[in-house]
Specification:
4-stranded mixed β-sheet, alpha/beta, single chain, Carbamate kinase, globular, 9 helices
């Protein structure tokens, strides 16, 4: 959600869903903001296999930007749209415990989720507030890690017993033919999407999103959808209409 107008529109739709009785939890990253602030301190962003290489300086910037800036901007937007939100990061109440990535030697402080403790979320949700979670977490020693937002969202969805996981991205969803934008797969089960990955039909940055969805479903989430956040009201279309707007993965 690079555009401020688009960001505000998505937040308004999220608040509408909250007003009609759904209980959303918002998990966010903030790549463009991180890149902007890294440039200010003279650090060139580096990526490997779609993941940000996170040295000590980058980790400090990531935490400041995600927790101190992006998170509070989203909380403010939710307030402006007429709801109330509570901003958190993975460190708060040990919501997320991290462990180093298996590729830590090349990625630095990029982490995986080793444990989720959702107890801090239940009273927030039950009180009618929207939790807004920045995906910075610490390991058992207190070392901070940068966690992929999609991965964290899937783990949190499973931990709170969510019915649905939605990943907002900048593509229309899973394509049957990666070279044909019109070949959107509207619905596929876990076996089918695994077959698409094995056949090479799903590749690149879509693979970790698919893996995140499959893992969430395996842990009890009913469905997971990958939708295009650039489409106006894609959130509402996916949840409130039969046709939806992206790709829904089912068990």
């Amino acid at each position: 959600m690079k555009s401020p107008e688009l960001q505000a529109s998505v937040i308004r739709d999220l608040v509408l869903l909250s007003c009609v009785g759904l209980r959303p939890v918002l998990v966010h990253g903030g790549g463009p903001e991180i890149n902007s602030w890294l440039a200010r301190v003279g650090v060139e962003p580096q990526f490997r296999n779609g993941l940000r290489v996170t040295d000590a300086v980058t980790m400090e910037v990531v935490e400041m930007v995600l927790v101190g800036k992006v998170n509070k901007q989203l909380v403010s937007l939710i307030s402006l749209a007429g709801a109330t939100a509570v901003g958190l990061c993975g460190k708060d109440a040990r919501l997320l415990t991290a462990r180093p990535s298996p590729d830590a030697a090349s990625l630095g402080f990029v982490g995986e989720v080793s444990r989720v403790d959702p107890s801090v979320l239940h009273p927030i949700i039950d009180s009618g507030h929207i939790p807004v979670i920045a995906t910075v977490a610490a390991d058992e020693t207190g070392q901070a890690y940068n966690i992929n937002a999609d991965t964290a969202a899937g783990e949190i969805a499973a931990a709170v017993g969510a019915e649905k996981l939605l990943l907002l991205t900048d593509v229309s969803g899973i394509l049957a033919d990666r070279d044909d934008p019109g070949s959107l797969v509207k619905e596929v089960d876990v076996a089918g999407v695994r077959r698409m990955v094995a056949e090479g039909k799903v590749g690149g940055g879509m693979i970790p999103k698919v893996e995140c969805c499959v893992r969430a479903i395996a842990q009890g989430v009913h469905t997971a959808s990958i939708i295009d956040g650039r489409v106006p009201h894609s959130l509402l279309l996916e949840i409130l209409t039969d046709e939806g707007t992206g790709t829904m993965i089912t068990g």
